[in-house]
């Protein structure tokens, strides 16, 4: 029986009187729970089961007695039916303490019961902080348990634990995380430096909003730290980077940029905040905050962190309590926290991040090698290939889970790559479009980082809002195609891409 239940010897669950086999053959008319049986666990009688019994744990320190989840308020029968519908069920502290689920509980409440008026006043008079301080929650826009649990989990993957200064805040999208980070510190009259090659939405935000709010910006070639140096001004408040850059996969030397910023501060200027959108890398490959001088790590968690193309989410992590206070204020007042269900899915995604990133990397390397060697492909951009202009830097900054992971399983370089199809500008574009449409395993869709492979054409899709001159200045050529390499069978991906490339001149 124990082997039937899949249990080892030490933890064998032996059913007696009558055995489970007998109970399973009980006629259908007899409710299963009414069958009396007892179990023996390690030689000890464990129960007769009394389903839904209210247990008294008053002898257990710190637990006490209480009611299970969802018990009606005392005196519930006195209330009208409408009251019973609308407000009668309670979730006691006792019940929550005794649940002990292994996964993050999904707490859907928009508001939380206060102990007394003083408790309400106390929670309202606090300065904003990334996490609750053990005194409870007040309103979900100001913080809520599932969001906070997922945020703490992600912070730890960025190297920020419970004892470190700083923290993480989760937003309802990557764009909310980016615009939230900028709004946290930029004011009218400030200046920021940003790369030519950034996610299209980030560029569009600068054009459509930031400049109308009196914030000046300078775009630079992010592959050269000296171009950041040249762009800094006395009123520069943010030095923004995106590395690897979407879609070119070009890298920024964050250490060098931070040094440039330190040198600027040494001249007596206020030190600008150094931020990095590290969406393509994830904290598995690049822990921005472990790079001296980088203050803020941003992710579109819609991508690899969620990992299954089923949520929109954004994350901002910082080691600066001052910045965390500012970003918590943004979340509270601009109102874009990540909702509980999405927070749960994000936390679940994190639990397999390392495994997925390694497999994305292994598949992407094979795809990149095939593309690099294919006569119809003019250029391939994959940081793991020696042909990539930033390969030497990639070997330094893709930490692939850190020393222990590296020693066990070697270095990988993520799942994102880009390539340009051979031919003059028009031919290359025509072939690229045909190629995308011929694919059967890889799907034509924007976004990235899910288990499935996706392909898209940035110049006409994700980066179409960036003026062509700015795109070209950042190395984003018209014919460039971006692939998010998924977790499919490697041969299926290679065969699919080969047939699409080979047939890209056919109508
Ligand atoms: C690098 C990068 N940053 C930010 C974003 C925006 O994220 P979201 O779509 O979750 O708002 C994206 C979206 O594709 C992205 O690729």
From TrEMBL:
Domain of life of the organism encoding this protein: Eukaryota
Cofactor(s) the record lists: pyridoxal 5'-phosphate
GO biological process, one term: cysteine biosynthetic process via cystathionine
Gene Ontology CC annotation, any one: cytoplasm
Lineage: Eukaryota, Haptista, Haptophyta, Prymnesiophyceae, Prymnesiales
Enzyme class: lyase
This protein's name: cystathionine gamma-lyase
UniProt xrefs under CDD domains: CGS_like
Alphabetical list of InterPro entries matching this protein: Cys/Met-Metab_PyrdxlP-dep_enz, Cys_met_metab_PP, PyrdxlP-dep_Trfase, PyrdxlP-dep_Trfase_major, PyrdxlP-dep_Trfase_small
Family of this protein: Belongs to the trans-sulfuration enzymes family.
Keywords: Amino-acid biosynthesis, Cysteine biosynthesis, Pyridoxal phosphate
EC id: 4.4.1.1
Pathway: Amino-acid biosynthesis; L-cysteine biosynthesis; L-cysteine from L-homocysteine and L-serine: step 2/2
A GO molecular-function annotation: pyridoxal phosphate binding
């Amino acid at each position: 029986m124990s082997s039937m239940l899949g249990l080892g010897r030490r933890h064998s669950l032996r059913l007696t009187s009558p055995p489970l086999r007998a109970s399973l053959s009980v006629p259908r008319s007899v409710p299963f729970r009414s069958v009396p049986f007892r179990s023996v666990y390690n030689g000890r009688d464990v129960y007769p089961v009394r389903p839904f019994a209210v247990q008294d744990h008053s002898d257990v320190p710190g637990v006490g007695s209480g009611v299970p989840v969802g018990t009606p308020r005392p005196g519930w029968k006195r209330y009208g039916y409408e009251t019973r519908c609308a407000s009668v069920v309670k979730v006691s502290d006792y019940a929550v303490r005794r649940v002990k689920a292994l996964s993050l509980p999904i707490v859907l409440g928009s508001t939380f019961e206060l102990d007394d008026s003083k408790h309400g006043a106390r929670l309202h008079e606090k300065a904003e902080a990334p996490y609750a301080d053990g005194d409870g929650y007040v309103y979900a826009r100001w913080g809520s348990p599932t969001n906070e649990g997922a945020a703490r989990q992600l912070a730890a993957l960025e190297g920020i634990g419970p004892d470190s200064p700083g923290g993480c805040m989760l937003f309802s999208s990557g764009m909310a995380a980016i615009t939230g980070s900028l709004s946290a510190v930029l004011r009218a009259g400030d200046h920021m430096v940003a790369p030519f090659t950034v996610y299209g939405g980030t560029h569009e935000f600068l054009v459509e909003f930031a400049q109308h709010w009196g914030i000046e910006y300078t775009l630079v070639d992010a592959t050269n730290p000296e171009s950041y140096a040249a762009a800094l001004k006395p009123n520069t408040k943010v030095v923004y980077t995106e590395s690897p850059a979407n879609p070119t996969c070009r890298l920024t030397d964050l250490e060098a940029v931070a040094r440039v910023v330190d040198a600027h501060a040494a001249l007596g200027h206020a030190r600008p905040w150094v931020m990095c959108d590290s969406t393509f890398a994830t904290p598995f490959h690049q822990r921005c905050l472990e790079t001296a001088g980088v203050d803020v790590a941003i992710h579109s968690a819609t991508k690899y962190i969620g990992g299954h193309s089923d949520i929109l989410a954004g994350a901002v992590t910082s080691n600066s309590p001052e910045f965390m206070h500012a970003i918590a204020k943004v979340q509270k007042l601009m109102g874009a926290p990540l909702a509980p269900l999405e927070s749960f899915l994000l936390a679940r995604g994190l639990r397999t991040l390392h495994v997925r990133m390694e497999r994305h990397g292994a598949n992407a390397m094979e795809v990149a090698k095939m593309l690099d060697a294919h006569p119809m492909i003019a250029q391939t951009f994959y940081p793991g290939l020696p042909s990539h202009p930033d390969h030497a830097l990639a070997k330094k900054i893709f930490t692939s889970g850190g020393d222990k992971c590296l020693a066990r399983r070697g270095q990988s370089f993520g799942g994102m790559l880009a390539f340009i199809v051979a031919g003059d500008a028009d031919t290359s574009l025509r072939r690229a479009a045909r190629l995308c449409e011929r694919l059967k395993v890889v799907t034509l869709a924007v976004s990235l980082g899910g288990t499935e492979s996706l392909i898209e054409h940035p110049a006409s899709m994700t980066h179409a809002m960036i003026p062509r001159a700015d795109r070209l200045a950042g190395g984003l050529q018209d014919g460039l195609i971006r692939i998010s390499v998924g977790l499919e069978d490697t041969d299926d991906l290679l065969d699919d891409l080969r047939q699409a490339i080979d047939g890209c001149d056919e109508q």
